[in-house]
Task: inverse folding
C-alpha cells in the first residue's frame, strides 16, 4: 500500500505548518521524515493518519484518494511519541482494542482475538505480560505495546511519530534494531518521523528531509549524504 | 502516483479528528443551558422578581421595619466576629499543615473538612448539647447567668463552626503549590518569624486568602441551619437575616421576605464575582512564579 | 501551631465529644427508640433516599455541564462557569423560599404542572429539586480539572484504531472519568443528606411524608428531648462519616489508577 501526498498545505491559525508538500512512500518502504522541531514533519504524518485535515492538496493510499476520510476509517496504524496507551485497560485489552471496536459484522470471535493478541505479544517480545496495566511497565515496554496495538488492526500503512523520543539511549538502540528487523519480515509500508539523523539513516530505506513545511530533499541515506540538495540539508546533516 | 487533487473545503480542514459533530455539540450545550437555566438561574430571577413585584416603594419599606434592621445588624456583627477568628485560624492551620511535619497531620486536615460534611443542624446541635439548659455546662451557665444558647454568643459559635474550613481550604493548596523557598531565604537573611510572615508570606498568599475570606463571609452571613438551632428565634435579639427571612415568609409577608433575600442574593452574586477575580489572580501569580523559575519545593 | 489546636479543640472537638458522650450515656434502649421511631425512619427515607436520586441527577447533568464547559467554546461559557457555584454561595434560606415560590401551584413553573394534578411544592418532588440544586457544583467542580487533563492523544489513538466517536467516549474517555464522577456524586450526596435550609420550605414538612432528618433533630430539641436529638444526630454523624470514608477511598482509587498514588 503506497502513500502519496500531493501539494499538501496546512495552516494553524496564522502559522503555515506545511506548504505544498509532495511525498511518495512506495509499497513496502520504510521511510524516515527527518527535520528540526517545528518543521512540519509531525503535521504531515498526522495528515496522512487523518488526525488533521489539509486546506489544500490530496492524500492517497495506493492511488485512492483518502483526503476527506476521517481517521477512524483510514486504517492507518499510528504510534505516538507518548505511547498514548489506555491506562485503564490491561496490555491485552489495549492490543485487542482495535479488534473489539470493529463493526459487529467484521468483528472476530473471542478466541480469534485472543490468538491474535498473543501472537502480537510474542512479536514484540512481551509474552506473558498481557494482564498487566500500562502503569506497571517500563517506557520501552509501553512503546512496544503501542506498536502491537497499532499492528492489531492490520493497518494498510504504519505511521510512527518520534516513536523512540521519550526513551533512553540504550533502549532506543534496541528498539531501532527491532524495528528494522520487524520491517524486513513484514514489509509493511512504514513512515516514521524523527529529528535524530542517526536514527533516520540507520533504520530507513529512504530519507525525506523537511524544513519549514517543505520537502528539502528525498533520497536514500547515501544519496542525501553524498549529494545534499541545498545549504539547509548540508547544515542540518552537518556535512562540510 | 498522485491521485486527483481534491480541494478540501475550509470547513472540513478545521475539523478535528476527535471532536463531536457540530449537531451533537449544539444539543449538548443546549441541554446544559436548559438545565442551568431551570435549576440555577430561575431561583435567582424569582428572588428579585418577587422582591420588586409590588413596586419599589414596598421594597424599601421592608427595610424600615425595626426587626429587619436588627436582623441585618446581627448578621453583620456575627460575620464581623466569625470571619476574622476563622481567618486567623485558617492562616495558622495552613501554616502548620504546609510547613511542618507532625503526627496527626492527616487527622488535622480531615478535621478541618468536618463542617463541610456534617449537616448544619448538627453544627447547632452540638453547642446546644454543651451549653443548652440540659447540656453539660447548662446548670453552671444558668447559675452564673451566662446565656450562650438562645443568645448572640451561641449564634457566633455556631456560625464560626460552620465556616471555619473555608479560609484554611483556600490557603492550603496554594501554599503547598508555592513552596517555602522564599520564607527560607528570608530566614537566612535574618528575618524573624513574624517578619517573615508579614513581609513574605502574606503578600504571596493574598489572593488565596481573599478567596477564603470571601467564601467564609458568604457562608457566615447566609448560614441558616446551624443558627436556627441555637438561636431561639427571638425577634430583635437573636434573629439573623436568614432566620428573619424565614419568619417573614411563614407570616406570609412574601414581599418583605424576598426583599431581604434580595440583599443576600446580591451578596451571593458579589461573592461569585470576587471569587472569580481572586481565583484568576491566584492562578496567575502561581504561573508567574513558576515561569520566573522560582524553585517549587 | 498551638493556636490551631486550641481553636479546634474548643470549636470542634469538645462539642463533638459532648455529642458522642451524650449518646453514650443514653442507654441502648432509649437510643434505639429514638432513632427507629416510625416518623424518624420515614425521614431517613426522605433524606437519604431523595438525596441519592438528586446526587444521581447531578451526576448526569454535572457530567454534561463539566464536559461542555471544558471542551466546548460558546458565548456565555464564562458566565455559565461562574454561575455553577451559585448553590454554594447563595444562602440556603434564600434558595429555599425561591424554590418554593418557583414551584408553587400558581407560580412560575408550578403552574405548568398543576393542571395535570402534579404538585411540586410540599411533595417529595420539591425536595428532590431542592437537593439537586444544592449538589450540582460538587459534581461539576470535581470533574472539571480531570476532564481538562485528559490526553488528546489517547483519543486520537482510539480513532486511529478504528473507534467511532461514541465508542471512543464509552470505552476510553468515560472509564477514565468514572472515579472522579463517583467522587463528585458522593460529595453531592453527603451535602444533600445534611441539607436543611433549602429543603424545609419547599418540603412543607408533612409528617411521615416530606420530613427530612435534620428537621427531626430540631423538633426533638424544641420539645427538649435532648437525648432523642443527640441520638438522631449521632446517626447522621455516623452516616456522614461513612460517606467521607467512601469519598476518600474513591479519590485514592482514582489517584492510583492515574499513576499518581
Result:
Amino acid at each position: 500500500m503506497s502513500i502519496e501526498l500531493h501539494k499538501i498545505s496546512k495552516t494553524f491559525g496564522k502559522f503555515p505548518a506545511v506548504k505544498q508538500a509532495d511525498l511518495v512512500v512506495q509499497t513496502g518502504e520504510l521511510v524516515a521524515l527527518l527535520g528540526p522541531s517545528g518543521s512540519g514533519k509531525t503535521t504531515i504524518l498526522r495528515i496522512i493518519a487523518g488526525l488533521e485535515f489539509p486546506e489544500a492538496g490530496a492524500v492517497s493510499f495506493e492511488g485512492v484518494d483518502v483526503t476527506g476520510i476521517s481517521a477512524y476509517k483510514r486504517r492507518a496504524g499510528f504510534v505516538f511519541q507518548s505511547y498514548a496507551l489506555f491506562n485503564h485497560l490491561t496490555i491485552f485489552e489495549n492490543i485487542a482494542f482495535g479488534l473489539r471496536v470493529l463493526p459487529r459484522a467484521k468483528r472476530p470471535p473471542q478466541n480469534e482475538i485472543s490468538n491474535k493478541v498473543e501472537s502480537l505479544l510474542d512479536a514484540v517480545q512481551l509474552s506473558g505480560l498481557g494482564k498487566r496495566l500500562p502503569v506497571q511497565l517500563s517506557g520501552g515496554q509501553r512503546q512496544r505495546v503501542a506498536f502491537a496495538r497499532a499492528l492489531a488492526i492490520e493497518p494498510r500503512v504504519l505511521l510512527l511519530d518520534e516513536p523512540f523520543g521519550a526513551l533512553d539511549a540504550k533502549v532506543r538502540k534496541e528498539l531501532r534494531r527491532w524495528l528494522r528487523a520487524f520491517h524486513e519480515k513484514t514489509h509493511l509500508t512504514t513512515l516514521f518521523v524523527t529529528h535524530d539523523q542517526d536514527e533516520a539513516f540507520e533504520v530507513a530505506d529512504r530519507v525525506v528531509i523537511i524544513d519549514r513545511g517543505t520537502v528539502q530533499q528525498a533520497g536514500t541515506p547515501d544519496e542525501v549524504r553524498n549529494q545534499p540538495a541545498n545549504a539547509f540539508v548540508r547544515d542540518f546533516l552537518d556535512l562540510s | 502516483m498522485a491521485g486527483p487533487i481534491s480541494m478540501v473545503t475550509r470547513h472540513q480542514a478545521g475539523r478535528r479528528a476527535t471532536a463531536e459533530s457540530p449537531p451533537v455539540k449544539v444539543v449538548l450545550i443546549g441541554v446544559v443551558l436548559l438545565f442551568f437555566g431551570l435549576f440555577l438561574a430561575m431561583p435567582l430571577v424569582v428572588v428579585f422578581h418577587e422582591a420588586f413585584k409590588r413596586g419599589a416603594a414596598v421594597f424599601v419599606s421592608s427595610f424600615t421595619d425595626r426587626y429587619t434592621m436588627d436582623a441585618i445588624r446581627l448578621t453583620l456583627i456575627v460575620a464581623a466576629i466569625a470571619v476574622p477568628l476563622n481567618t486567623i485560624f485558617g492562616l495558622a492551620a495552613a501554616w502548620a499543615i504546609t510547613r511542618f511535619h507532625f503526627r496527626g497531620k492527616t487527622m488535622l486536615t480531615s478535621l478541618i473538612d468536618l463542617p463541610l460534611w456534617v449537616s448544619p443542624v448538627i453544627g447547632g446541635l452540638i453547642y446546644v448539647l454543651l451549653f443548652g439548659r440540659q447540656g453539660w455546662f447548662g446548670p453552671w451557665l444558668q447559675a452564673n447567668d451566662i446565656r450562650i444558647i438562645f443568645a448572640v454568643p451561641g449564634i457566633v459559635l455556631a456560625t464560626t463552626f460552620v465556616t471555619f474550613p473555608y479560609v484554611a481550604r483556600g490557603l492550603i493548596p496554594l501554599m503547598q503549590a508555592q513552596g517555602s523557598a522564599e520564607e527560607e531565604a528570608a530566614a537566612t537573611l535574618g528575618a524573624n518569624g513574624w517578619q517573615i510572615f508579614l513581609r513574605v508570606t502574606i503578600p504571596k498568599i493574598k489572593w488565596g486568602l481573599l478567596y477564603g475570606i470571601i467564601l467564609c463571609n458568604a457562608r457566615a452571613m447566609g448560614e441558616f441551619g446551624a443558627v436556627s438551632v441555637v438561636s431561639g428565634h427571638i425577634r430583635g435579639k437573636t434573629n439573623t437575616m436568614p432566620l428573619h427571612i424565614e419568619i417573614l415568609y411563614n407570616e406570609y409577608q412574601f414581599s418583605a421576605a424576598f426583599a431581604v433575600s434580595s440583599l443576600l442574593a446580591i451578596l451571593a452574586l458579589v461573592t461569585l464575582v470576587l471569587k472569580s477575580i481572586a481565583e484568576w489572580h491566584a492562578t496567575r501569580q502561581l504561573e508567574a512564579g513558576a515561569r520566573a523559575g522560582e524553585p517549587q519545593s | 501551631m498551638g493556636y490551631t489546636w486550641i481553636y479546634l479543640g474548643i470549636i470542634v472537638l469538645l462539642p463533638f465529644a459532648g455529642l458522642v458522650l451524650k449518646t453514650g450515656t443514653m442507654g441502648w434502649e432509649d437510643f434505639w427508640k429514638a432513632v427507629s421511631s416510625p416518623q424518624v425512619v420515614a425521614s431517613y427515607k426522605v433524606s437519604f433516599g431523595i438525596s441519592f436520586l438528586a446526587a444521581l441527577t447531578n451526576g448526569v447533568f454535572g457530567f454534561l455541564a463539566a464536559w461542555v464547559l471544558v471542551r466546548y467554546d460558546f458565548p456565555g461559557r464564562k458566565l455559565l462557569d461562574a454561575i455553577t457555584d451559585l448553590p454554594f454561595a447563595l444562602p440556603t434560606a434564600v434558595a429555599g423560599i425561591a424554590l418554593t415560590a418557583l414551584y408553587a401551584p400558581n407560580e412560575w413553573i408550578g403552574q405548568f404542572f398543576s393542571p395535570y394534578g402534579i404538585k411540586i411544592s410540599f411533595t417529595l418532588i420539591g425536595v428532590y429539586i431542592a437537593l439537586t440544586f444544592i449538589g450540582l457544583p460538587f459534581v461539576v467542580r470535581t470533574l472539571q480539572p480531570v476532564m481538562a487533563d485528559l490526553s488528546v492523544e489517547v483519543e486520537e489513538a482510539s480513532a486511529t484504531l478504528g473507534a467511532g466517536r461514541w465508542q471512543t467516549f464509552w470505552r476510553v474517555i468515560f472509564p477514565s472519568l468514572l472515579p472522579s464522577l463517583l467522587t463528585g456524586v458522593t460529595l453531592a450526596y453527603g451535602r444533600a443528606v445534611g441539607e436543611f435550609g433549602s429543603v424545609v420550605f419547599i418540603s412543607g414538612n408533612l409528617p411521615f411524608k416530606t420530613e427530612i432528618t435534620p428537621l427531626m433533630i430540631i423538633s426533638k430539641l424544641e420539645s427538649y428531648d435532648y437525648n432523642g436529638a443527640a441520638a438522631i444526630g449521632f446517626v447522621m454523624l455516623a452516616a456522614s462519616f461513612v460517606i467521607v470514608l467512601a469519598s476518600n477511598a474513591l479519590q485514592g482509587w482514582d489517584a492510583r489508577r492515574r499513576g499518581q498514588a
